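[[Per-residue structure]]
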Amino acid sequence: MQKLLSLYHPNRENIFYEHKPSVIAADEIGVLNTQVDALIAARNVDIDMAEAIMRVEVGSSVTSLSSKELKRDLLVFARNNPKLFLELADDENVMLRNFGIRAVEAGILRLSSDQRYFMWSSNGRNIMTVPFDEHPYTALAHWFKTDEGMEIYSNIEKRLDQ
């Protein structure tokens, strides 16, 4: 009867499924391999990259964490969301977005209240207009890659290092 139902029943893959341990094991191996890859990558990441990745997940509260707390949270994040972690670790703009956020937090740059302009905090001079329908820090990260943006980036970097 079981053989007959597993082969010919019209709802065999809708109402009930045949237990297939090899298929389940193959799926679990894929998930476990992704978790291991993410954990290894998280363990080898430097502290600046860890801050940048965790800022995407947690937000500005990352600045108050110690390096040990940050590393622990990064490993937990890599274990719980391995695919997202690996995507963020490979994203070249994560560090630039983090740099922009740090510049705003340090009071070097200021983001207008309507989130359309980045300007110098010291004199209010506009340095960049955010394109319509784009996240301000993503736009700033892309802008840092331009010729003018690279000059501003190095200027901000010097100010942050002081």
